[in-house]
Amino acid sequence: MSAYVDVPESGLQDAGAVTSCFFYGTLMHAKVLARVAGADEKRVYIPAVLEGHRRHRVRGMDYPAVVPDTTSGASVRGMLVENLDTRAIERLDAFEGDEYVRRQVTVRPVDALSESPSEITCQTYIWLDHQQLLPEEWDFETFEREAIHRWTGEGGEREYSMLGNTADISKDGSVTDDGTRGRSSFR
Hints:
Layout: E1 4-6, E2 18-23, H1 30-37, E3 44-51, E4 53-57, E5 64-68, E6 75-85, H2 86-96, E7 100-109, E8 120-127, H3 140-146, H4 148-152, E9 167-169, E10 175-177
Parallel strand pairs: 1-7
Antiparallel strand pairs: 2-6, 3-6, 3-7, 4-5, 7-8, 9-10
């Protein structure tokens, strides 16, 4: 199932249109984004901050969730990716599944020397099931160190189908989850 879409009519794409998305987790890694949305040399990558939101670890998963948070100073650092075409957005919606809703947000580029405006309207994926969130923040460096191989297909890990079971039988015969909920084999 694809991500729900909750963007104003003006934010929906026409065929052939391009859009920008703010990524704050696994999709900040260029290899993961290319595997999911396809490679495209026209894309522009801008470090950015999404204010009024907080990033959390998701129970038992490698990937994070972002939810609105009105606490003073709540913000999420991530990557704004511009020039995503309709096909890339369709693939991203399928990848994110029904755990997220794609919403229009405003981000601020991190680099003050950037040629980008001080605020940029884009879209991001907001988590829907707060009961699955852990209180601690998800960490990109930990993801790169401990789990990236499951998302890029490197390291000899068994791959899983987006449409099938994400469980695997470990060496000791117990059933385990790969931490990607099937996203590791998205192509």
